[in-house]
Amino acid sequence: MATEVSICSNALRKLGDDPITSLSDNTERARLCNAFYEPIRDSVTRAHSWNFAIRRQALSRLTSTPAFTYAYEYTLPTDPYCLRVLSMQTNDLDFKVEGRKLLTNEGEAKILYIGKITSPAEFDALFTEALTARLAAELAYSITGSNSLTSQMWEMYELKLREARGADGSEGSLDSIVADTFTGFRL
What's the domain range around 73? Predict the structure, then answer.
């Protein structure tokens, strides 16, 4: 099972460097991994609607209302923290995320969202590979000083990301497409 340390150590190994034993090691490699890991993890999680990170929640409506355009505002989830709203369970597709609030004209807001998943035990194996590759790409120049190795790591990340997205997207049934005036129009 992957851990934060094993993900960081594997990224360092891809760069030809030694692994770390802890994110709090008193080494430059550990300090870099500690600084880069969390924001990169969240960035890679936010980049795709990963099945392992999808959550559903009915939101709490706030007593305040938006100044204009929308009638209601709701607090976005904090457990797990909402990284990206995917959709609302409603026919009205008109909603907006501003700050930590969702604005809509709907009197009820149930959303599908990408949650901030912090435990590597919950990650999909291919996501872990993509995350490791992204971490290696981000660390490459700081660790090696090599522009060519940095480019190679970014290429590897793009490849791993495509592979992980492809596998992730093939799980489950396709979402239904609802006909409307746009999809029903023919020339």
Answer: 54-115
Q: Which residue type, as a one-letter code, is found at position 129?
A: E
In a domain, 84, yes or no: yes
- Amino acid (one-letter) located at 85: V
Residues in Cβ contact with 77 at an 8 Å cutoff, skipping those fewer than 6 apart: 55, 57, 59, 111, 113, 115
Interior/surface letters 20-32, b for 16+ CB within 10 angstroms, e for the rest: beebeeeeebbeb
Domain count, the chain: 2
Q: How many CB atoms lie within 10 A of CB 71?
A: 11
Rounded to an integer, what distance in angstroms lies between the CA atom of residue 34 and that of residue 31? 5
Q: What is the pTM of this model?
A: 0.87
- C-alpha dist (Å) from residue 52 to 117, 124, 163: 9, 7, 16
User: Would you say the C-alpha torsion 109, 111, 114, 117 has a positive or negative sign?
Assistant: positive
Cβ neighbours of residue 52 closer than 8 Å, sequence gap 6 or more: 117, 122, 123, 124, 127
- Give the pLDDT confidence of 4-62 residue by residue, as tens digits: 999 999 999 999 999 999 999 999 999 999 999 999 999 999 999 999 999 999 999 99
